[in-house]
Amino acid sequence: MATIRSRAMPRVFEGALCAGDLRFGIVASRFNEFIVHYLVRGALQCLGTYGADTGRVDVVWVPGAFEIPTAAARLAKSGRYDAVICLGAVIQGETSHFDHVAGEVTRGVGAVGRETGVPTMFGVQTTETLEQAVARSNDGEGNKGWEAALAAIEMVSALALWQSGSA
Length: 167
Hints:
By secondary structure, this protein is α/β, with parallel strands linked by helices.
């Protein structure tokens, strides 16, 4: 015979979308800058929309997407940022170079977040065509820089709630 147990509600930790006094670092790839510029702009617009002082946001430009994890690790380990937002555009070409760069930047950004505990957001586009990259960097809905910044705000808030234990 089955036993019926009471079903207590779980504690839920969900981040608020309020950037307030949070500090953000952005690492941006100069390679494909004509795309990445719009991702940075989208991230800054998002941060400002949710209350961040964009004058306190630091943007570090690196040569290419491959270099993003190194800079992100330095920013995360500095203790000056609540979150690091990584932005770039890796567009498929005719060689396997795309696969190597896309894989390494993905693994590297993920490792920075896991190793430092600082939310490190992946806003690096890995697209098959230039048209796809442009579509994901336009102003407004779908800008991957905006989406990465929004995720950064929510992650910092959710982790702070969990740390404090107050759901």
